[in-house]
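REQUEST ID: PR-0412
SUBMITTED BY: lab tech R.K.
PRIORITY: routine
TASK: structure prediction, single protein chain
INPUT:
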Amino acid sequence: MLIFGFTELLSKISIAGLNGGVLHKVGDLEQLNRERETLFWIHGSALFGIILSILLASLVSILSEDIVMLVFSNAKLSEFLSLYAWLLPPMTLSRIYMGALRHKMNLKHEVLSGSVLEPGVTFFVGIALVQFLGLEGVFIAHFFAYCISAGYLIYFNQKSYLKVSFPSSISIDECRKLLSDSLYFFGIGSLNLLKHHLDVFVIGRLLTLKDVAVYSACLEISVLIKKVRLILEPILMPVVKSIKDDKNELKKQIRNVLVYSSYFSLLAIGFFCFQGDFILNLFGDGYSENHHILLILLMGQYCFTVFGVLETTMYMFGEPRAAFEQNILLVFLSLTFLFVLVPRFGMIGAAIASSTASFLVGSVNVWRSYKLKNFFPFGKKFFHHVGFFIFLVAMFFAIDSYISSYRFFWDWIIVFLFSSMYLLPLLFRKKFQFFM
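STATUS: complete
OUTPUT:
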């Protein structure tokens, strides 16, 4: 996880923000009635990215020992870094083509490739290979997943845009504009990824590799909640674009998305409240003892998922700087809290630092959204379902505390009862309009 997170951070260098730069370029070409040049610029950007990624992977492989000693002070990680560096080419290719498709405002391909294909292929191929090849099998699974994702996105880029046509000329101003847009997205993307792996890097620097493994397992489980945001954002973006001049309708739709993003996130959190130790046990002995770390991280991911939706709406309202500035604030707060809390409290300090920073920046997000649109994004229904969730969790925790025998059986019964009761307002929305 430590090396994979570092590789993802390196991928921002090889992508160089071209996923965002090419998105703007496609829009510019459409305004100039030069749509036939779209695929030329998309494929050209991808070619530049693949060349840059191969050069970067080669450099990292050669200097892997020096890099891991500088960043992690652990020479044992060099062989893994030199291997995982070769994830950069397919990772770069998939992200650039993913960015190019965003202009169509139909993000189902992004969701399918990033949230279904990549994790699905990685999981099943990894399970098949890890018992024979160890960590090399995990690398092959990741590599295979990114290659399939890239091929899938290339195919739908070809289907979505007109047949490629070479431009009569390419001006320096056009290239400069593409570079300028790309550098902006490079900054946002790098900060966004850094903030999600910062705690792992600090633990890798200050604590043991065993701590890194345990914390990474908790972090990987907690980030599953982010999939809720990735699924709902593609629905929200075209809606905001079509109704942004109708304040009442906009308020209604934003509040609905916030309620649903919170509702399903809390459902997942409720499951991990009662079965988190069981899931952590799948990683090995000693992992389930850190169930409390998972719960703290889940709270931070909840803030990112729910409050982060407002970041998307601000971008749609012509405030792209909001995400950049909030990412800088989050990195600063996270670093400050991590270096204060980790040396004293270890992994639990890292979890508290990460989640506290996410909550504070999320609160800033709410305030900026209010100032921009002049209405509070959370309605009564939001607080009603959150209160309902807290009541159910408290009730079932109280019941759980009295159970001493057949724990495994009763824990699953509690999960079933909690899920059934929590989903009632969703399944019968007309009767439970108080919640939904």
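NOTES: The CA atoms of residues 252 and 377 lie 9 Å apart.
REVIEWED BY: pending
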